[in-house]
Amino acid sequence: MSAIVLRRAGELFVALLVMSLIVFGLGRALGDPAALMLGNFATEEDRQALTRDLGLDRPLGVQYLTFVGNALRGDLGRSISGDRQPVMEIILSRLPASLQLAGAALALSLAAGIPLGVVAAVKRGTWVDTSARIFALLGQSIPVFWIGIVLIYVFSVRMRWLPTSGYGGLEHFALPATTMALFTVAAITRLTRVGMIEALDSDYVRLARMKGLSEVKVIWKHALSNSVLPLITYLGAFLATMITGAVVVETIFGWPGIGRLAYEAILDRDYPLMQAVVLVMTALFMSLNLLADVLHVVVDPRLRNEGR
Amino acid sequence: MSRRKLEKSTMAVLALFGSLVALAVVAPSIVPHDPYSGDLANRLQPPAWLPGGDFLYPLGTDAVGRDLLSRLMMGARVSLLIAVFAVAGATLLGSGVGIAAGYAGGWVDSLLMRLVDLAISLPMILLALLVGVLIGPSLINIVIIIGLVLWAQFARMARNETIRVKNLAYVDFARAAGSSPLRIVREHIVPNIAGPLIVLATLQVGTVIVMEAALSFLGVGVPPPAPAWGSMIADGRSYVFSAWWICIFPGVAILLTVLVANFLGDRLAESLTPERHRE
User: Taking the model in full, what pTM does it have?
Assistant: First the structure.
């Protein structure tokens, strides 16, 4: 058990190293970062000053090792824009908003997906089931960025119920969290439905019915608790997709999280910030997937002795 | 679902997909207006059925007066072209790597599969965005980027299928009869693992269309003025208060195309790999 976790953590570290190499290499391969960052109107002195400042005049290998060494100590450099804040500070100030949004979206997905899946399974073959399945199919085919704009149009422009963008109270969460949740609601509905159909056909549910338990108790307690268990193993993976999905959702809704930060840093070619935010998002994404794998082993002990 | 009904719906999905492809092919010669340049006098025209609409522009016009219907039709061409090339590239690269790993086994297998695990575990959409910004938007670049995002899944499947097939009796027999590895792969392995790979490829078409649209929306996909659905939505975003149709219609086009592609993939999966679909 702990061996698997250790191995996966080792793999995560290697993957992060590879990612840092890619991010580092891409920038260097595609021209002089100092020139890219300063744009076309910079003077030669500016360029040289920035080159020295960023250590770009040293050999590539040394630059990379310095970068990794500093990163391991939590120092990822300073942003090139404005007042040159350390990038770690910027990222940490943006992280809570992203985590809140992803958390809200996950809660919403569970609150909507599980009941939908249960009802679809109980009413298997009826119109309720069919509509739940169509909904699940739509949820996994709709482009996220488009549904975000449609929600803004319907609820902000037409109804004037909710703000189009920004960060603050509950009313600001409604649209971005719904947008982000749509895909996972669909996935959770599907998973719950399949699990419930299996559970409802099982011996212990039959036994519970024979004992004369009420149908409500049979469905929502006995059958559900067994079909929800596998769902737990997906939670980490769902959160992981929300971290990367944040780039689009946060950009549309002007949400002050790390997704929008990543997009802006990439567009502005704020080189140190871009490197750092991509690495932080990769680390988050991969640790959540690691968590999902660990939970999977915890929930399903049969996997414990398998190598892969 | 009864068998008859199933076949009917398969035919319907196939017909829909076929007409979409046909539309994409003939789009340049049947578009009612020039999709690239507009008439500023007719900018932000609403769809024909709304007050102020005109049947000259059935779905209305965008902010520079270009006909939305014409751009949507040409957009189908862009989306399908990218999807086909990106998926084909990913299938070829992935199958190559996967078959090599599965057939060779040993350290080659472990090395290649480590690479595949790595590629699958990284947040590829972030990398795609990064690469897209750094190398600049172009049709070829987006095909390459999406191909690189997808290949690993094909490699994993091709490797597992190759291992399943390579120990079957007739492959052993061919080996004993002195066939070269290349010949065994070509004549015995590829035909036997093609089914699941084709299904995976079809199912990925929808994913690619959404991914391309998302990248175009973020400004790193298809460069303007090419009418990509994703960039049409991005263009319409700032007009959502006054001219909703500019970004609503391209989204509907994406949604319908992806649904049709996914349906087709499901149906193919049922007929090409029936042993996995006993549900």
Answer: 0.85
